[in-house]
Amino acid sequence: MNSTPESDIKPSRLPAVRQRGLANPSALGFGSFAATLMALSLSAMGFRGVSNQSVFVANLCFLAGLGLLISAQWEMVRGNTFEYTVLAAFGLYYGGYGVLILPSMGIFESYQGQTAEYYNAFGIYQLVWCVLNLFFFIASLPTGGPNIIIYGGLELSYIFNCIAHFVRADGNVATSTSLMKAGGAFGFIASLAGFYMLGHELCQDVLPFRVPVYNTSRLAERRKSSD
């Protein structure tokens, strides 16, 4: 018979199960967005003489198209309406843009080459995104400084690209090229802000320091309190 007091009997220690929440999907979203936008922006600026964007179809359809859509679904699970909307929209946009420039789709040939109708159609395509991205820009104002730069840079990029295509349709090639380069420059700035946000999202999970992000949500709170 065991003479050990019952109070001294300790239950065996079971291995602790580490409870983890959902992974942060924003890092993949920002990385996919920034890498794809930077490649397109460098091409628009004529970097290294590259103007044919067919090689970027891989980024457009897979890294951006699939990557952003995957990130968007998990943002929806987390209940983030703004993040879900913009990630899903840009995932579909980049995937669709990749399809547009695929030679096998025959879209370019359907306009019989670089005709005025082709450039006007592409200008309308960019114009619609100017309108849609304007709402994204307004919604980004209380989310943080880098986000404002991203959507502000994108808005200017869409505007310059839209005008560039309309000008090209009118036959002003030199002016159109300059406007296209300006649009690429603003897109490049937006991509840098996207990489900054990628650093922010990754560092706060794996490193003992954080990349600072100016929080502008106080502006919205101040607005609400004054109302």
Please outline what is shown here.
GO terms for molecular function: acetate transmembrane transporter activity. The protein is built from 8 helices and no strands. With 227 residues, it is mainly alpha-helical.
How many strand segments? Answer: 0
The low-confidence runs, each spanning 5 or more residues with pLDDT under 50, are: 1-19
Overall average pLDDT: 87
- Number of separate structural domains: 1
H and E order:
HHHHHHHH
How far the N terminus sits from the C terminus, by CA atoms, comes to: 76 Å
Class inferred from helices and paired strands: mainly alpha
Describe the biggest sheet?
none
* Shape field: globular
Supply Rg: 24 Å
**What percent of residues are in strands?**
under 5%
Number of alpha- plus pi-helical segments: 8
Helix content estimate: 55-70%
Keywords: Membrane, Transmembrane, Transmembrane helix
GO cellular component, one term: plasma membrane
InterPro entries: AceTr, Gpr1/Fun34/SatP-like
Family: Belongs to the acetate uptake transporter (AceTr) (TC 2.A.96) family.
